[in-house]
Amino acid sequence: MLILRCPARLQRLEDALRRSLPRALPVYGAVLNINRGNPGDFEVAVDAWPDFGAVLARRSGEAPVHDSYWNLQAAFYRDVGAYRALLETPGCLRWDAAFHIFGLQDGVATVSQDIAAAKGVELEVTEYYTYLHPDPSTLPEPQLDPDVRLGTLNRAHVELLDSTWAYGGNAWSRRYLGELLERFPSLCLLSRAGQPLCWALTDGFAAGAHGFTLPSQRRRGLMRVLTALAARRALARGFPAYGHTATGNGAMQRLQEALGHRRLPGLCRFVLHNPALARAAP
């Protein structure tokens, strides 16, 4: 296992991952961030260099044992055997901690399941659809409702975001959301009084994340406006316009398809290792 730190190697990795899109999207997004100042303090681990067969993108440093939000890793492989070997390499992962691995390839889940079965580690797998806009430049400039204005979020909004997020409700989730707000782009639509009505964040893998509209403000087209704006801004920064949507969230699926986003084949699987530890978060 190697941690790539050399800028030339990281640029070469970015170029290789671009040729493997869309399967490499989450890892590619993380490497784009690393090569543009590394605001999330990420690192990438490969099984070998330069002829790598598998890559993990993740936060650098060691997370608290219960913090599966910090310990979130994206995976991409060219060879599933190399991926399995990377995960089994001593020091690559803490199998006694709570952590997520996610990716767009079937082996991301099956390899974790095989290794976890041998180690007696419990898993939970959550499936999402991944949507990618092929060309956000074709999106028309959204027209804002006269009663709302465009803004951004900051740490003062963490409690609101955490209370409306299905995976929130603990100290680790609030820290995670606060760091996203400080480190990566966010957008929101505000009322005349400055109250957030609808918002969307960006995570360390360059994916749109944590989109939400207050129930009282739904059916006004606010999320449609915000999704189009976020896609155009991602394009302007040189990033892909993509995100993961719950398989049961038909409304968001229809909205993205109406805007021209394409649902990628298969599923994005988030594999939570040691979920009992994660649920013990304060």
Automatic annotation (TrEMBL):
Residues 188-265 form the Glycine N-acyltransferase C-terminal domain. InterPro entries: Acyl_CoA_acyltransferase (IPR016181), Glycine_N-acyltransferase (IPR010313), Glycine_N-acyltransferase_C (IPR013652), Glycine_N-acyltransferase_N (IPR015938). GO terms for cellular component: mitochondrion. Its EC number is 2.3.1.-. PANTHER family: GLYCINE N-ACYLTRANSFERASE-LIKE PROTEIN, L-COA N-ACYLTRANSFERASE-RELATED. Belongs to the glycine N-acyltransferase family. This is Glycine N-acyltransferase-like protein.
